[in-house]
Write a structure and sequence with these properties.
This protein has 429 residues and is mainly alpha-helical. The chain has 20 helices and four strands. A two-stranded antiparallel sheet has the order 1-4.
């Protein structure tokens, strides 16, 4: 049955290999079970309910990816957009409106994926902007990580300053950061998850981690956040906010799919990924489902490459990952005991991993370098992903046009640049 469903022999794999690959992928991305509710709970959303939504949306969507697309990719609430959700959009309009933005971005994604228009837009957006957005998000979430850890603190004179490293919280976060960095350097599978758990244990004698009751139990109810989307509030936030969620979700997914598939020799003779439309559709469905359940954008995880490196080639790997996410629902009490100081290092480490595309930007061409820099810098400087994307489109269009390279810019980019101006200066006209 499994052979017929997943075509294991045709893909050069077997059940044992797929199961091991699924376990490996889950270990590398299970940290999201703890980190996502920790971030989203800062908005007032109940931690336990968000954890349930996080695990449930990841489990269901990943299983769908295995069944519909027959690929070994896992999906869960994405890093970066969850921080943008919590610290920018929810701060401005409430978490209900933020869920509405996520849902709308998912609907747009689904329509464009089903119609194939997504391929036209993908071709129009410059590679420089795509790469810079990923790098900028990495800096953005790393900034949030050092802030949550107490490694930096606000300062009236200098805006930010070094935190008090003699305090137990920041000290624990620094210890956790070093532990996780060493695990990553030694290529330990599940390094980020292990880093969180080890740091939390070290926090017990330090008085930062507080153990109360059992580490397993009944999953928390979704009722406080289920179907609480505020669509009207989302629309009031404007086009660029919805676009930013959609943009990051789409191009993060495309980059993950193509990059990992290339390394695993899963592309066809034309350099294309077969059934990419199915994967994009599942990703869009996951985003919509996540918003309904009560979590931020669900997207394809680059950590899927860990399972692919172990030989995972079919949807059976994804189904193993999905089942493990659903099984993790019983660990809600454990997640609630893990302090922010133990999860903050994970944000910093993920920020490091997201810096990789910076090497592929053509820094020798100023018409490419300047828009890339503005995109990257403006995200942490303005504490907003949408502002960084807007800055990137505006500077790319203007600098190219006024440097005699107007024909290098697709008309879609000019349209987005104009929209970005209205986003940054809403009272211009």
């Amino acid at each position: 049955m499994l052979e017929r469903m997943f075509k294991l022999k045709e893909n050069g794999t077997d059940v044992k290999t797929e199961v091991i690959a699924g376990l490996t992928t889950f270990m590398t991305m299970a940290y999201i079970i703890f980190v996502n509710p920790d971030i989203l709970s800062t908005t007032g959303m109940p931690f336990g309910a968000v954890m349930t939504a996080t695990a449930l949306s990841a489990g269901v969507t990943t299983i769908l990816a295995g069944l519909i697309a027959n690929y070994p990719y896992a999906l869960a609430s994405g890093m970066g957009l969850n921080a943008f959700f919590a610290f920018v959009v929810a701060e401005q309009a409430g978490w209900q409106a933020a869920l509405g933005v996520v849902f709308l971005s998912g609907v747009v994604f689904l329509i464009l994926a089903l119609t194939g228009i997504i391929n036209v837009i993908d071709a129009a957006i410059p590679q420089t902007i795509k790469r810079a957005v990923g790098v900028g998000i990495g800096l953005f979430i790393a900034f949030i990580g050092v802030k949550n850890a107490g490694i930096i603190q606000s300062d009236a004179a200098t805006i930010v300053a070094r935190g008090d490293f003699s305090a137990r919280g920041p000290l624990l976060a620094l210890i956790g950061l070093m532990i996780t960095a060493v695990l990553m350097a030694r290529n330990v599978k599940g390094a980020i998850l292990l880093g969180i758990l080890i740091t939390a244990v070290i926090g017990i004698p330090m008085g930062v981690t507080h153990i109360e009751g059992s580490i397993i139990g009944k999953p928390q109810s979704l009722s406080p956040i289920f179907c609480k989307l505020d669509i009207r509030g989302a629309l009031d936030l404007g086009f660029m906010t919805v676009f930013s969620f959609w943009f990051v979700d789409v191009f993060d997914t495309v980059g993950t799919l193509m990059g990992t598939a290339s390394r695993a020799n899963m592309l066809d003779e034309n350099g294309q990924l077969p059934r990419i439309k199915q994967m994009m559709t599942v990703d869009a469905i996951g985003t919509c489902l996540g918003a309904i359940l009560g979590t931020s954008t669900v997207t394809t995880y680059v950590e899927s490459s860990a399972g692919i490196a172990e030989g995972g080639r079919t949807g059976l790997t994804a189904i193993v990952v999905g089942i493990l996410f659903l099984a993790s629902l019983i660990f809600a009490p454990l997640a609630g005991m893990i302090p922010t100081e133990a999860t903050a290092p994970a944000l910093i480490i993920v920020g490091v991993l997201m810096m990789l595309p910076v090497k592929d930007i053509d820094w020798s061409d100023f018409t490419e370098a300047f828009p890339a820099f503005m995109t990257i810098a403006m995200m942490p400087f303005t504490f907003s992903i949408s502002d960084g994307i807007s800055a990137g489109f505006i500077t790319y269009a203007v600098v190219k046009a006024l440097s005699g390279k107007a024909k290098e810019v697709h008309w879609v980019v000019y349209v987005l640049a104009v929209i970005s101006v209205f986003h940054l200066i809403p009272g211009l006209f």
